[in-house]
Design goal:
Number of strands: 5
Structural class: alpha+beta
CATH class of the largest domain: Mainly Alpha
Strand order of the largest sheet: 4-3-5
Radius of gyration: 17 Å
CATH superfamily of the largest domain: Winged helix-like DNA-binding domain superfamily/Winged helix DNA-binding domain
Order of helices and strands: HHHHEEEEHEH
CATH architecture of the largest domain: Orthogonal Bundle
Number of helices: 6
Helix content: 25-40%
Largest sheet: 3 strands, mixed
Length: 151
């Protein structure tokens, strides 16, 4: 099932419809490998007649359903990225801002060790890797918006 069909089914199961405005929010993020901050998303979607409240509500819903997650910007803010189904981490390029998914995660042993040492009941983790993508490295530093995908 593609992510749009999965989103439609998930929304339906909670009593919501995939309206054209909600779909526009999803597509904005799904079509970007850099993601958007909430203000950027509002600005882009305003051009399509989608209101700020709809953007904020839908981003929250998408995040709760596992369709979006955030990565950290260099300035400490958050950009929201559409993510594939399942457990995902990201490689975030500090140069061009591209966020590439990494689905391999063998942190179960570490989670158990941390739980044993701290007494916490560990429920999950959020992990990001930062650096420069191969294209930014090849050009000696950050590229503003290179026409490539790094992963």
């Amino acid at each position: 099932m593609d992510r749009l069909a999965e989103l439609r089914a998930n929304l339906h199961s909670t009593g919501l419809r995939l309206t054209p405005q909600r779909e526009a929010v999803w597509r904005l993020f799904a079509d970007s490998d850099r993601g958007y901050t909430l203000p950027q998303a509002c600005l882009e979607l305003q051009k399509k007649g989608v209101g700020q409240a709809t953007v904020y509500r839908m981003v929250t819903t998408l995040q709760e359903m596992g369709f979006l997650r955030f990565v950290h910007d260099q300035d400490g803010g958050h950009r929201y990225i559409a993510c594939p189904a399942g457990h995902t981490h990201y490689l975030v390029c500090r140069g061009c801002g591209r966020a590439c998914p990494v689905t391999d995660c063998n942190l179960g042993v570490l989670e158990k060790l941390i739980a044993a040492q701290s007494g916490f009941s560990v429920e999950g983790h959020h992990l990001e890797f930062f650096g420069l993508c191969p294209q930014c490295l090849a050009h000696g530093g950050p590229l503003p918006h290179p026409p490539h995908t790094c992963c």
